[in-house]
UniProtKB/TrEMBL annotation:
Main location as per UniProt: membrane
Stretch list, region Disordered: 477-550
Protein name (record): MFS general substrate transporter
Source organism (scientific name): Aureobasidium pullulans EXF-150
Location in or out of the cell: Membrane
SUPFAM superfamilies attached to this UniProt entry: MFS general substrate transporter (SSF103473)
PANTHER family associated with the record: CARBOXYLIC ACID TRANSPORTER PROTEIN HOMOLOG
Length: 550
C-alpha cells in the first residue's frame, strides 16, 4: 500500500513539474492579480483593465494556431519532442511578457508600443501552450494504449485542466498571503513578487522537462511504430470517417470553453458587485477569488476520480456535472435579486463556488477525454489538434460574449444600480448554463459510447473502414500493435516462450515461405494451431476490458 502511494505521489509530482499547465494557469491568473494591484497603485501599464480582455483573446489566438499545427505534425514527429518544443516556446515568450510588464509600469511615453509587444508575446506564449497541450495528450494516450491499468492510465485522466486551476489558485493565493501578512502598504513588493514568480516558474518547468526527457520520457518501440503508422493514413479517408464525430466534439468543446472562459474572467467582477461595486480590502478580494479557484481544483479532482470509475465514465460524469451546475445556475438567477440587497449576500459566493465546481467536475474534466476516446491512436494527433483548436475559438467567443454583456448592461443602466447589479449577475450565469446544457446534449447524443479499451475498439473500427475502401492495413497493424507480452505454453514442464511481435512474426513467416517480409502480410505458421494464433492476436492488441463506461 505504501509503495503504491509513493508511486502515485512520484507520478503526480513528475506530471506537475514537467507539463506547462501549471505555468499557463499561474500566468493567466497573475494577469488579473497584477491588474488589480496596479489599479490600487494608480499606475498605468500593459496590465490595465481596458486591455485585459484583449490580451486574453490574443492568448487564445496563439493557442488556436499552435493546436492546429501541432495536431498535424505530432503525427509525424515524436510527441516527446513536440512537448519539448512547446515548453521551450512557452518559456521564451513568458519571460518576455514578464520583462515587458516590468518595463511598462509608469512608462506612459512608450505604453502603446509596449502594449503591442505584450500582445505579440501573449500570442507566442499561447502558441507554445497549444503545441504542448496536444503533444502531452497524444503521449499520454499512447502510453494508455499499452498500460490500460497502470500509472500511465491515470495520467490520461490527469488533464491539464487540473494543472491550470492549480496554477490559477497559486496566482491568487500568493498575493492573498502577502497582503494578509504585510497589509496593503507594500503594493510594490507584492507586485514584484508576483511578476518574479511568473518569470521563474516557466524556467523551472523547462528545466524539469529537460531532465525528464533525458531520463524517463523515452518512447518505446511500439510508440515509434504508432508514429510511423500515423503518416500512412490518407487525409481523404480520415475526413470521410471522422467528419461527423470531429464536428460534434469540436462544437461541444467550443460551447464549454465559451462558457468557462467568460466566467473565469468574470470572477473578480462577481466580488466587486457583491461589495457594492466598491473595491474591498485586497486580502479579502484575493481570498474570495482563491476560494473559487479552490473549488475549481476540487471539481477537477472529483471529475478525474469519478470518470475513472467503471460505473461512471466520461459521459455519466458529464451529465451529472451539468445537472448540478444547472441547479446552481437556476438558484443564482432566482435568488440574486433578494440576496444581493440582504445581509446574506455572501451566500451568493457559495453558489458561485459550487457552480464553478460542477462545471469542472463535468465538462471541464471530460471534454478532452471524450476527444481522445473517440478516435483511433493512428490519427489522434490531427483529431485532437483540430478539436482543441475549435475549442479555443469558443474561448475567444466567450471573451467577446462577456464583453458584449458588460457593455449592454452599462448602456442599459438608467440610474437603478441595484437592477444593474442583478442583471450583471443573472445574464452571465444564465448564458453559461445554457451553453453547458447544449454542449452536454451534443456530446451525449452525437458521440459514440466510450469503452474502457477505447484504443483497441477505435483502431479496429478505423482499420475495417480502411479495408472496405481498399486500403492495405497490414503495415498499419504491424506498426501500431504493441509487442505481445511473454506467454507460457500449456505444459508446465516446458519453459516459457516469448510470443513474437507483429512485425518480426510477419518477417519470420515470410522468410519461411520465400516471400518478402516488409510488405507481405504475416502468415500463420503450419506448426501453430488456430487457437494459439487467436490468443496471440488478443495479446498483441492489449488487455481488453469487457465492461464499457457509461
Amino acid at each position: 500500500m505504501f509503495a503504491e502511494i509513493w508511486n502515485y505521489l512520484c507520478w503526480f509530482l513528475i506530471t506537475i513539474f514537467t507539463d506547462a499547465g501549471l505555468t499557463e494557469g499561474y500566468l493567466n491568473g497573475s494577469l488579473g492579480a497584477v491588474t488589480l494591484i496596479l489599479g490600487m497603485m494608480s499606475a498605468r501599464s500593459v496590465f490595465d483593465v481596458d486591455t485585459r480582455l484583449y490580451m486574453d483573446i490574443t492568448l487564445n489566438v496563439g493557442m488556436v494556431i499552435g493546436m492546429a499545427l501541432s495536431g498535424r505534425y505530432t503525427d509525424r514527429i515524436s510527441s516527446k519532442w513536440m512537448i519539448f518544443f512547446g515548453i521551450s516556446t512557452t518559456v521564451f515568450w513568458s519571460i518576455l511578457c514578464a520583462l515587458i510588464s516590468l518595463a511598462s509600469v509608469k512608462n506612459d511615453a512608450q505604453l502603446l508600443t509596449l502594449k503591442i509587444l505584450f500582445a505579440v508575446s501573449r500570442s507566442g506564449f499561447g502558441f507554445g501552450l497549444g503545441v504542448e497541450f496536444v503533444g502531452t495528450f497524444v503521449m499520454n494516450s499512447d502510453k494508455a494504449f499499452h498500460h490500460i491499468q497502470g500509472r500511465e492510465w491515470r495520467a490520461l485522466f490527469y488533464s491539464e485542466t487540473l494543472q491550470y486551476h492549480l496554477g490559477y489558485l497559486l496566482s491568487n493565493l500568493v498575493p492573498f498571503v502577502l497582503f494578509l501578512i504585510y497589509g496593503e502598504g507594500h503594493l510594490q513588493g507584492v507586485l514584484t513578487a508576483c511578476l518574479t514568480i511568473g518569470a521563474i516558474l516557466p524556467l523551472h518547468t523547462w528545466s524539469c522537462h529537460i531532465v525528464y526527457c533525458c531520463t524517463k520520457a523515452n518512447e518505446t518501440g511500439a510508440q515509434r511504430r504508432m508514429r510511423i503508422a500515423r503518416t500512412r493514413i490518407p487525409p481523404a479517408l480520415f475526413n470521410e470517417f471522422y467528419q461527423s464525430t470531429l464536428i460534434t466534439i469540436a462544437m461541444a468543446w467550443a460551447f464549454h470553453e465559451m462558457s468557462a472562459t467568460g466566467l473565469g474572467l468574470y470572477v473578480p467582477t462577481e466580488v466587486l458587485i457583491l461589495n457594492g461595486n466598491q473595491r474591498p480590502n485586497l486580502w479579502r478580494m484575493f481570498g474570495w477569488t482563491s476560494l473559487i479557484c479552490a473549488f475549481n481544483v476540487l471539481g477537477s479532482i472529483l471529475g478525474m476520480y469519478f470518470t475513472a470509475k467503471r460505473l461512471w465514465g466520461p459521459k455519466k460524469t458529464l451529465i451529472i456535472g451539468t445537472a448540478i451546475q444547472g441547479v446552481f445556475g437556476v438558484l443564482i438567477v432566482a435568488t440574486v435579486g433578494t440576496l444581493l440587497v440582504s445581509p446574506l449576500s455572501p451566500v451568493l459566493m457559495v453558489f458561485f463556488a459550487f457552480f464553478h465546481l460542477a462545471q469542472e467536475f463535468g465538462a471541464g474534466s471530460n471534454m478532452a477525454l471524450l476527444a481522445v476516446g473517440t478516435c483511433a491512436p493512428s490519427v489522434r494527433g490531427r483529431y485532437l489538434g483540430y478539436a482543441a483548436a475549435a475549442s479555443k475559438l469558443g474561448a475567444i467567443a466567450g471573451d467577446i460574449l462577456i464583453l458584449l454583456t458588460i457593455n449592454y448592461i452599462e448602456a442599459k443602466d438608467e440610474g437603478d444600480s441595484g437592477a444593474t447589479y442583478e442583471e450583471a449577475l443573472t445574464y452571465p450565469f444564465g448564458i453559461a448554463t445554457l451553453l453547458l446544457v447544449l454542449a452536454t446534449i451534443l456530446a451525449v447524443t452525437g458521440l459514440p459510447k466510450v469503452e474502457v479499451d477505447f484504443n483497441l475498439v477505435n483502431m479496429q473500427a478505423l482499420n475495417r473502414f480502411l479495408q472496405n475502401w481498399g486500403y492495405r492495413t497490414t503495415d498499419l497493424d504491424r506498426f501500431e500493435l504493441p509487442p505481445p507480452s511473454p506467454t507460457t505454453s500449456g505444459s508446465a514442464n516446458r519453459p516459457a516462450r516469448a510470443v513474437p511481435s507483429a512485425s518480426n512474426r510477419g518477417a519470420a513467416s515470410a522468410s519461411a515461405s520465400g516471400r518478402g517480409g516488409f510488405n507481405s502480410p504475416p502468415r500463420m505458421p503450419a506448426a501453430v494451431p488456430r487457437r494459439r494464433v487467436d490468443r496471440n492476436s488478443e495479446t498483441a492488441a492489449g488487455p481488453a476490458q469487457p465492461a464499457p463506461w457509461g
